[in-house]
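Sorry to interrupt, but I need a hand with the structure work. Please put the record directly below this note.
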Amino acid sequence: MYALLLALIYLCFISLGLPDALLGSAWPQMRLTLGAPLAWGGFLSLLITCGTILSSLASGFLLRRFSTGRLTAISVAMTAAALWGFSVSRSFPALCLWCIPYGLGAGCVDAGLNHFVALRYEAKHMNWLHCFWGIGATAGPLLMGQCLSQGLGWQRGYGLISGIQILLAAVLLFSLPVWKHQPPQREAVLSVEESTAAPSRKKSVILPALTAFFLYSAVELTTGLWGSSFLTEYHGLSADTAAQWISLFYLGITLGRLGSGFLSIRLSDDAMIRLGEVICLLGILALLLPLPDGFLRWGLLLTGLGCAPIYPAMLHATPKRFGTTAAQSLMGVQMACSYLGCTLMPPLTGLLLSHISMGLFPAALLVFLLLMAGMSQAAARA
């Protein structure tokens, strides 16, 4: 039953990833259909992530009232409904309204599942689970790009992903009894909880850890949201080609987390974070330097490979750093900081780039990455 439960959580992470990259890959075409400025894509992202922050902060309370499985099924169903709403919308205000359930559906399930896995499974499973998120995040823009290239429109792309989400929600609903069979907590987590040094360590780690989550999301979400626009506006690629190329970023995350699962057997969480930062730096430099356009694909792939181990390692370290008593609440706070980075930085970056030059997109990523490296190192030393 433990293996079946783990398989269900893998399925949940695919569901989490499917809608995450849709807006960024579809926006170059969406804005033309709606007659909207480029920067308005950041406003939609802002609305989605505001809802996600609220539900993430409420995750501790909701998980105490509902089981993890039940809350996950409800959240996936909400996301499916929001995606259907996107598929039938014909105006920007309508999209804004559907952004509310879009965001609320993601926050609780994300915080709840990450806490559940960090508490009860080894680091390799955290990486592989987020690899399955990458499968969903890679499939999303690929399916959207296919719909755009065949002239079906972005509405059909959202409708297709909505149908997949509805199917996943049905599977989760009928498998609720499986969630009653939970593996025990990890011994490493229990040992930290009992340590007399834990309270002082918690205080010194909290601020840099939260800031690192904020900055990681700035890197990942800014790449996902504005990567296609960078390729179309600055390098002159077509919208369907840009949507397919940006999927390389999510493919890098997917493949990177698959490999990170094996590396994490040997390397600590902090070592995995440092390795990811170095690879991510190489990818951003490939986007920043004046190289032939063919290198852009490698830059996106390397940036994704670098992002791959960072987020799972930071999540997996949470119970070990703070203990089980504080981990559930702090997991929600960390997720909220992550979503705050999603909320603020992509739209602010888009606003800045729209007024200066989309060519500065890689430079913005570089600034976020260097700041994140400093915060993650401070958290590791604390």
